[in-house]
UniProtKB/TrEMBL annotation:
Gene Ontology cellular-component terms listed: plasma membrane
PANTHER family with a match to the protein in the record: CYTOCHROME BD2 SUBUNIT II
Protein name as annotated: Cytochrome d ubiquinol oxidase subunit II
Record field: transmembrane: 22-52, 73-91, 97-114, 134-154, 160-183, 195-221, 227-250, 257-282, 302-325
Organism field: Halorubrum rubrum
UniProt entry tagged with the keyword Nuclease: no
One Pfam family this sequence matches: Cyt_bd_oxida_II
Subcellular location: Cell membrane
Main location: membrane
InterPro entries given in the database record: Cyt-d_oxidase_su2
Length: 335
């Protein structure tokens, strides 16, 4: 790279774009992508607890088998983007909530290890233990992730707070919504009708949990209830209600792909509300704004070029992955 090109990249943002805001949106978009893609795996793990039939449990494991480890890539990408673009936030946030970070990693390890061990022996006691471990990891991971997001939003100095618990429950419920739609899409008639009823109950519980969450968050935000009465937040809440109703109708009538798309909308909508309530701050606990925490111009421009090249490649990989394993599972497939 010539000195002239370096000077050009250091002189200002690429094409005059608002790169700090774009990276802020990208970071939350990556978090939303992880929450949706790995979310339906978490939800499937929670639903696993309600199934007593061995064939039904095998169907759940077969449905998520090709996807769950790949879906976790988005958590790594989220962490990498946060570290690269907003290093002081990464340092402050992860050190402040390191117990939650270790808890999330432990739950993810348990969720990944349990199905592998479950299949190693067909012993009732063995499979009961690892089945419970699979459920525990699948429930704890989204709960702790939600607690992390809730504490981040309100700038909580501690890892375990009322806001964290409420947001954790909300996120866990949302993953069950996604999981029910995904399992219905991938297994068709291999699972009992109970899965549909769980999905319908979960979407009602999620919408109720969102209302409770907004109330608890409003009590902690400096702007209070006024923060929730902004046009973007009210619009997203209204859209979420519509998507929730659409999800229920679609799932009840077997339009499982539509139900899963509605679950995706609910997931990105929740993340968008968090981002809107937080902006222009990116770390409310320290008061750092997006423009204060962003890296300098030269590395920001270089990272933006790299992201523009690499993210489409990662997205292409996932298109190929989901295309290769599209359609419902067959009776011959196993985890």
């Amino acid at each position: 790279m010539t000195s002239a090109s370096v000077e050009t990249l250091a002189s200002g943002p690429l094409f005059g774009l608002p790169l700090p805001e774009l990276w802020f949106a990208l970071v939350f978009g990556l978090l939303g992508t992880f929450l949706f893609l790995d979310g339906f795996d978490f939800g499937a793990g929670a639903i696993f607890a309600t199934l007593a039939d061995d064939e039904a449990r095998e169907a759940v494991l077969s449905a998520i088998g090709p996807f769950w480890d790949g879906n976790e890539v988005w958590l790594v990408v989220f962490g990498g983007a946060l570290f690269a673009a907003f290093p002081p936030v990464y340092a402050e946030l992860f050190s402040r909530h390191y117990l939650l970070m270790f808890g999330i990693l432990g739950a993810l390890i348990l969720r990944g290890l349990a199905p592998e061990m479950y299949e190693q022996r067909h012993d009732e006691r063995w499979q009961r233990w690892w089945g419970r471990s699979f459920v525990a990891g699948s429930v704890l991971a989204p709960f702790l992730l939600g607690a992390f997001a809730g504490n981040w939003l309100v700038g909580a100095p501690r890892s375990f707070t009322l806001v964290g618990v409420v947001v954790g429950v909300t996120v866990t419920t949302l993953t069950v919504v996604s999981g029910a739609a995904f399992l219905r899409l991938k297994t068709r008639d291999a699972l009992p009708e109970t899965v549909t009823r769980i999905g319908l109950g979960a979407v009602v519980a999620y919408l109720f949990a969102v209302v409770v969450t907004l109330g608890v968050v409003a009590a902690r935000l400096p702007a209070g209830i006024d923060a929730l009465l902004s046009a973007p937040v009210l619009a997203l809440v209204a859209v979420s209600v519509v998507l929730g109703v659409g999800y229920g109708v679609a799932l009840r009538h077997g339009a499982n792909a539509v139900a899963l798309a509605a679950a995706a909308g609910l997931t990105y909508g929740l993340i968008a509300v968090v981002a809107i309530l937080m902006y222009p701050s990116i770390d409310p606990a320290t008061g750092m704004t997006v423009r204060e925490a962003i890296v300098s111009t030269l590395p920001l421009n270089l990272m933006s070029i790299g992201a523009a090249l690499l993210l489409p490649l990662i997205a292409t990989y996932f298109v190929v992955l989901y295309s290769a394993f599209s359609g419902p599972i067959t009776a011959e497939e196993a985890y």
